[in-house]
Amino acid sequence: MSQTSHDRLLIIDFGSQVTQLIARRLRELNVYCEIHPYQNVTDAFLDSFAPKAIIFSGGPDSVMREGSPRPPRRAYELGVPILGICYGQQVMMHDLGGKVEAGEHATAEFGRAYVSPTDGPRPDFLNGWFMDGSGREQVWMSHGDHVSEIAPGFEVLGTSPGAPFAITADLDRRFYAVQFHPEVHHTPNGKTLYENFIRDAGFTGDWTMGAYREEAIRKIREQVGDKQVICGLSGGVDSSVAAVLIHEAIGDQLTCVFVDHGLLRLNEAQEVVTMFRDHYNIPLIHADESELFLGELEGISDPETKRKTIGRLFIDVFQKYASEIEGAEFLAQGTLYPDVIESVSFSGGPSVTIKSHHNVGGLPEKMGLKLVEPLRELFKDEVRALGHELGLPASFIGRHPFPGPGLAIRCPGEITREKLEILRKADAVYIDQIRKHGLYDEIWQAFVAILPVRTVGVMGDGRTYDYACALRAVTSVDGMTADYYPFSHDFLGETATRIINEVKGINRVTYDVTSKPPGTIEWE
Ligand code: XMP
Q1: Active-site residue, from 34, 183, 195, 522
Q2: Three-state SS for 418?
Q3: CATH number of 8-201
Q4: I need a labelling partner for 388 at 20 to 30 A (CA). Which of 70, 76, 180, 203 fits?
């Protein structure tokens, strides 16, 4: 649990797929909240967390089932407002004396529905709802069971054809419960309900990046004292923001290690070094180990072997440089909140490994280092806002994600220096095109992959026999799912011409129109 001094809201997670979205909506309203799985929320936990309000998430279980998830009774006794969503509504009704029925009687509802208000005075919880001419609101339902009798003290504020108790409230106790999901995109006015809920609970919206920065700096100083910290800098947004923040807190007690594996984009290493060393004056070791990495990768074409080789070397190299920094006791990492949330999983066994992600996991234990993770409470867009607050250039903060194994996974088949050179140049032309056409910020990630195939072409009067490449551009929210970006044919044609004219070694350009799933974003 964090030690923040802000007003705190507790989200008790019952395993919904969209619990994180509740946290997102609240953070957008400048409310500090944390998600905790229901199993961890004991009476003692509630007392020490001291929430100003509580939200019960949705979840896949049925309250009718013996042993299904429950909040502790104490949650109802704290005297703070509670909002129950979907399964959270059913739990609340069930716990407080209402009735829930299984969804066998064709009352299960999935997808879009419309809620209408009941007659009678509208409490503040409905401020901003039912205002347009239609008098109803679109919501997103996803429930099997449904409430069949509300608990004593509750009243019905809104109904839908499949959910007669779509919005319910006990106004005296400030308990609210809805059958639909206000946090999802398909409940367009859902954020207003959260806003009404938190206003009722007395939140002042004190969660701002300026406040966060001050607090984070104080906490880093407290944690680190006069000891040395090392930070693995990748040039990505997360580690960069972490480094600048820590540097602001402890100055030269921070040393950054930038491992250059020779698989970076055109001029990337130089840009990172210049920015951090010259602009921010952060002590930085530029570990140019490209010979080592490219040497060890020679002859390897299996994607997993490539990833594992890079991961292993990265740890070795980082460890070598870090151990030269005298008195280092802490390792800084740009861990984000989505990596920290211990969500409830009902799926049982471990999920299948699609790709071994490259990270420095295990390093702190191996080196006896303690962790400094100043971004642990933030979502990605909050990290960007913090970067902005710290004065990092907008062009840097808005950069597309770049994977740890770098160009290695954009070079299917064997990696050679020649192919990497060609790939770097093609990628630079492609990104330049995207920027020139004003599309960079609309796209989540864009890059070129060089294919392990040569094709025949004709340029001038001569025959060419060069590499083919694939352009990739996707839209996404979190990289978990993605759609290909619908470039115009004019854009694609112009880009293909530029790449073939400007990059020696490529004579054919293709566009990858695979979504994820079934594809992945990277080619390996
Ligand atoms: P995939 O290819 O799995 O990628 O659809 C999803 C997102 O993750 C990035 N990615 C990585 N990032 N280390 C990283 O730091 C990795 O090993 C790695 N593999 C993929 C990828 O660029 C995309 O943004």
Answers
A1: 183
A2: helix
A3: 3.40.50.880
A4: 203
